[in-house]
Amino acid sequence: MSVSSDMPPRASKEEMDELKAVLKSCSLDFRPFCEYLAEELAEPGHEEESKSETYRGWFKKGRFPDRALFEKMWELLRQHDLFRSSQLVKPQYVSGIVDKDLEAALVALSKRVTDHMK
Amino acid sequence: MSDQKKKSLTIVCPSCAEENNFAQGEHVTSRCAKCSASFYGKKYKHIKYLSAGLVALSSMLGGYAASEIVNEARLPALAEYRLMNLCINGDPRVVERNRYLIKEETCSCIVTKAVEDIDLTWSLISEERHQKWLFESMKEAGALCR
Known about the structure:
Helix content of chain A is 58%, strand content 2%. Chain A is mainly α. Chain A is globular and about 45 Å long. Chain B is mainly α. Chain B has 5 helices and 3 strands. Chain B has a two-stranded antiparallel sheet. In chain B, strand 1 (8-12) and strand 2 form a beta hairpin. In chain B, helix 2 crosses helix 3, helix 3 crosses helix 4 (97-121) and helix 4 (97-121) packs across helix 5 (130-144). Chain B is elongated and about 65 Å long. The A-B interface holds A 18, 21-22, 87-93, 97-99, 101-103, 105-107, 109-114, 116-117 and B 59-62, 82-83, 85-100, 102-103, 106-107, 110, 131, 134-135, 138-139, 142, 146.
């Protein structure tokens, strides 16, 4: 049985673990953070509905949001005062601008540099 | 470069852009042959052209225009920015701010060394190996910058 290619790409377990670890280090709980996200993304006047339905369960173990929502989570977290004062940096770049092979090689290089610093 | 060029001196007039050519041994005049502006009071420096290797790297980074590659032996600003940006931010994992600052310095060192290497040794590498070698060059520079 093949996996449907229509499924939007999702955040990986490692990425979600990293997000949760950063939230924890900022003294933020994941569930209220998801509700805050739902409120932010909701149509005006539909905040409660969004909180209770649209994003219900994203804080549950083993549930991984699609990549667009995951990016939104980070966008929101980056703007949070507790993250801004946390001495942590979440690197960000826009992919697909440079030659594909060169980009892959430089991303690998970037990971090697980070690993070497740890 | 042709032998004739090697044995001549060309001063491009800073006032009118006229090329004033002097053969080896010929008296070099202090004024432009066209507009008579004086060549004194200016500093003249050899123009180094961007090497084929750096032009190729710039093309892959999508950050150059033909007009930008004539007179500097370094990557155009946009290409250099993209190279640095990928080295620093290509790995999306969260890092502590002080480590991020160290990474910025490391990547600056890597890019500087790789660009020097590409500029100096590009002509020694066969054409089919160029792309692979560009990446190797970055990798080798990475090892030198730690």
